[in-house]
Write a structure and sequence with these properties.
The protein folds into two domains: about 5-35 and about 295-409, Alpha-Beta Complex (Aspartate Aminotransferase, domain 1), CATH 3.90.1150; about 45-275, Type I PLP-dependent aspartate aminotransferase-like (Major domain) (Aspartate Aminotransferase, domain 2). It is about 40% helix and about 15% strand. It is of the alpha/beta class and about 400 residues long. The strands form three sheets. The chain has a seven-stranded mixed sheet with strand order 2-8-7-6-5-3-4, sandwiched between helices. It has 15 helices and 13 strands. The protein has helices at about 5-10, 40-50, 60-80, 95-105, 125-130, 150-160, 180-190, 210-215, 235-240, 265-270, 275-285, 295-320, 350-355, 370-375, 395-409, and strands spanning about 25, 85-90, 115, 135-140, 165-170, 195-200, 215-220, 230-235, 325, 340-345, 360, 365, 385-390.
Length: about 400
């Protein structure tokens, strides 16, 4: 039987929980960005103190700077179960998709078809839709207006011999349901198309095994997985070689630069190795067994999932009987991330302000999922209240949240 997550050990590795300005505050807007873990903060500070020079030059500080950047790429790629040259860094997932879509402009032709969803964050739908300007036909795989779920049969009706790519979320930042990404990818591949998976709202709850999912492109943000403000983009090597170079012409032969038109943030890339440090710390603390990097990531992710599910159940029970708010998405914890959006009777932004006065840090708005809210019949200008947590959330904080919701709803 797997061990229970040691939440005290976890919270001790996040400086935010000992920060005086955050004392007596419970953080429930993690879907917008998580706290950074200590290894990331330590690596970032150390890089700025010792290695803030151009990397890869033949002097010690520069050689070490490059080594730290390479370490981050290699260790994260290993945990994601891909090759290091298939992993790229960028300033954000939105920017990474923008560059990726620009590259696809060079290989898509008028009459080609792509499929997007209205369950996505705008980052993984807007830039693909813009390709319609080039003569590409864009189809929308629409979620159910009541449940917010995507029916695979709806995708099947859109796929045909002209379909070139399908962009979809592993998990919606509003609906919260975890789509069966591997299943969808197989259907896309069976149709002869490419699968672009947005994992931004999934990865905070456990690093994905990208090889097992089979995605041609998988994206997520490290600032939501306890790291610095970077976006990770895994691109299958065979696809990378087909896409036009988006960097300087002389970088065309460098896989890590082909989809990075601007210079990388050296310090933040190096600090991303702290995410791998943190996963390894948790694995060593909880498991008395030696495993390879993908196995360690899967084991730690399972700890996250079990802990988050246990915390989610009483909150879902409360929300199911709450008169002042309607939960969007599934009302059970199975296949659900702890990202809970509420369509409230009172204006969501007013409720968020009231919660803040009670020590609950939550958000309200459209969360860049305007099409999702429109598909649910919710006015994006009004938005929703969103409550989101991750594995470092403690049981007593859920109780505190429920008590606060009873007051403000």
């Amino acid at each position: 039987m797997p061990p229970a997550l040691d939440v005290d050990f976890v919270r001790a590795r996040f400086p935010a929980f000992s920060e005086p300005s955050l004392k007596d505050r419970s953080f429930f807007e993690n879907a917008g960005g998580s706290y950074a873990c200590a290894p990331v903060i330590e690596r970032l500070g150390r890089y700025y103190r010792r290695n803030k020079v151009q990397p890869y030059a033949p002097y010690p500080a520069s050689l070490e700077a490059g080594r730290q950047m390479d370490e981050a790429r290699e260790r994260l790629a290993a945990m994601l179960n891909i090759a290091p040259d298939e992993l790229g860094f960028g300033p954000s997932t939105t920017q990474n998709v923008y560059v990726l879509a620009c590259a696809f402009r060079g290989i898509l032709r008028p009459g080609d078809e792509i499929v997007v969803t209205n369950q996505d964050h705008e980052a993984n739908t807007g830039r693909w839709r813009a390709l319609a300007e080039t003569g590409v036909t864009v189809h929308e795989w629409r979620m159910d207006a009541e449940t917010g779920l995507l029916d695979p049969a709806g995708l099947d009706r859109l796929l045909n011999a002209r379909t070139r790519l399908v962009a979809f979320p592993h998990c919606s930042n509003i609906i919260g349901y975890i789509n069966d990404a591997a299943f969808i990818v197989r259907r896309v591949h069976d149709a002869g198309a490419l699968a672009i998976v947005d994992g931004v709202s999934f990865a905070p709850h456990g690093l994905p095994d990208i090889a097992a999912i089979g995605a041609d492109v998988y994206l997520f943000s490290t600032y939501k997985t306890f790291g610095p403000h970077q976006g990770l983009m895994a691109v299958r090597r065979e696809l990378m070689e087909k896409l036009p170079n988006q960097s300087h012409w002389f970088n065309a032969s460098c896989p890590d630069k082909r989809l990075a038109p601007a210079g990388p943030d050296h310090a933040q890339i190096a600090a991303c190795a702290g995410i791998a440090d943190y996963y390894d710390e948790l694995h060593e603390h909880h498991f008395n067994v030696k495993e390879n990097a993908p196995e360690r990531a899967r084991a730690v992710s399972a700890l996250f999932r079990a802990h988050e599910t246990a915390l989610m159940e009483p909150l879902l029970d409360f929300l199911s009987s709450c008169d002042g708010a309607r939960l969007i998405g599934p009302a059970t914890a199975e296949n659900r991330a702890p990202t809970l959006a509420l369509d409230t009777t009172r204006p969501p932004r007013e409720i968020a302000r009231d919660l803040a006065e009670l020590g609950i840090m939550a958000g309200a708005g459209d969360f860049y999922a305007v099409r999702t809210l429109q598909g649910l019949g919710i006015d994006p200008e009004r938005g929703v209240l969103r409550l989101s947590f991750v594995h470092y959330t403690a049981e007593n904080e859920i109780g505190r949240l429920i008590a606060a919701l009873e007051t403000v709803l």
